User: Fold this.
Amino acid sequence: MNVAQRAAIVEVMPQVPTANAETEGPVRARVIDLSFYYSDKQALHGVNFLVYDRQVTAIIGPSGCGKSTLLRAFNRMHDLYPDNRYEGQVILYPEEINIVSPQVDPMLVRLKIGMVFQKPNPFPKSIYDNVAAGLWVRGIRKKTLVDERVEQALTQAALWGEVKDRLKTSAYGLSGGQQQRLCIARALAPDPEMLLLDEPTSALDPIATARIEELVTELASVVTIVIVTHNMQQAARISNYTAFMHLGQMVEFHKTAIMFTNPSDRRTQDYITGRFG
Amino acid sequence: MTNSADAIKAEKIDEQSLVKKANRQDLRFAIIGFIVLLVTMFILLALIADFMRVGIPRISVDFLTNYPSRKPEQAGILSAWVGTSLVMFTTAAVAVPIGVAAGIYLEEYSPKNWMTDIIEINVTNLAGVPSIIYGLLALGLFVYTLRLGQTVLVAGLTLALLILPIIIVATREALRSIPIEMREAAYGIGADKWQVVSMYLLPTARPGILTGAIVGMSRAIGETAPIITIGALAFIAFLPPSPVQETFPFLNFEWLHSPFTVMPIQMFNWISRPQAGFHVAAAATGVILLMMTLLMNGLAIYIRYRIRRRT
Assistant:
């Protein structure tokens, strides 16, 4: 990125009240004026915010505000369906590539950024095969390395103890909460630069939810996490930064502590105090 | 904690080259797929084009309104296309209701035990039985045992038997592909089994069922072997009685008991004659038969499109 581009970014950033970029530690991704269209319908309107390295960034907002749309833009899930269109930039560091640019292959983006979806979606294969899938896709086939990494990823996902004696059994035999942790392990195995979580606990019970939350907090030391959640308490509990979205716009982006104690926008205040949404 | 992650890093995954390799693979497969498609389409189109080149000049109003004749120039397919239409109507009227009902029963009502399993395996296998076997069955059952004669009714029943498995399997597939959530939603509002099936499942499954019915009918329209086996005539110089009449009750089902011929038999008969004129007539019949099939498929696509737009 050259000086002019940097200047352009600095110029657009103040449109949204944000945490100060340069004093908060290394930035992993910078979203600049991102708009998104489902054919004619505009779902994101010029979104700006930052994703800090090895921090948990939560995106909150009422239903239909575009938070999932924003998250899915990060690994180009929208490219799977026709007539979808991005405008603006999402710069990923340290490579400094614009991951929503049509010139950047979606596959390249997905090799760098992992995703966990709302409903647990393990493959109809064994637990081992599920976790190893991402490694095989990347051409890593050395048995010892794959074995080691599968164990590591399952340990990171706090699932190893429960499944180590049945790695070769079907993933469908696991409970919902276990399946979701398996999906997290699957995303972690290839050591991604960033992990996207799209309401990962909305289909789970409180105990499973608590385990996933604990897990997210621990994982923040190894990987950058962006999580979409419906649940404000969850955002307050597990995130370092919070972004509040409303009607496709980024209303406010702050450190979580500031966001929940001293929000600067009226809408943020109304939402987090439960007056709407 | 991070040692194997480091090992992964040490593997030096070259993402750019992975992407390049993937793109090359995609391109290679797309090219091969396109060529294969071209070859198949070309063979089919060449066949149809050849057919049409020979056949189309022969098609005229006379060709459609004349009975077969000993003189190739005067021969027509009136009795054949009327026969085909009546037989297909009978087939559809018998096979679609029974097939759909059987599919619904097997998928939604039948208890899941070994009996149902055996029925299921048999139904699936029946779809692969050679059509001449159905002809022999019909000859023994309908013609000799039940003494129904060599009539439109028997031909319709025979072809209905032939396509029943196709319709049953299509119905079951269509019902099975409906998400379980829709059943739960319907039962959840207190609907009984029949209401669930008739109000929610059948409308959703309709496009799939319709496709199955059309695939079956398209197969039936071209079948020759079973019709010959039950003894259809190749030379018929009269029409079955009209289904509509001027006096009460206006509908007349005498045509069901009339002897008949169908277009594939007419073609088969003409092809085996030595005169070149009859070969041209056979090609022309083929064109008409093809057009009838296309018309049927077109109608199905149109209906399916209408259904999709409404939901």
The interface with chain B takes residues 105, 107-108, 111-112, 135, 138-140, 142, 145, 148-149, 151-152, 155-156, 190-191, 222 of chain A (CB under 8 Å). The first helix of chain A runs from residue 3 to 12.
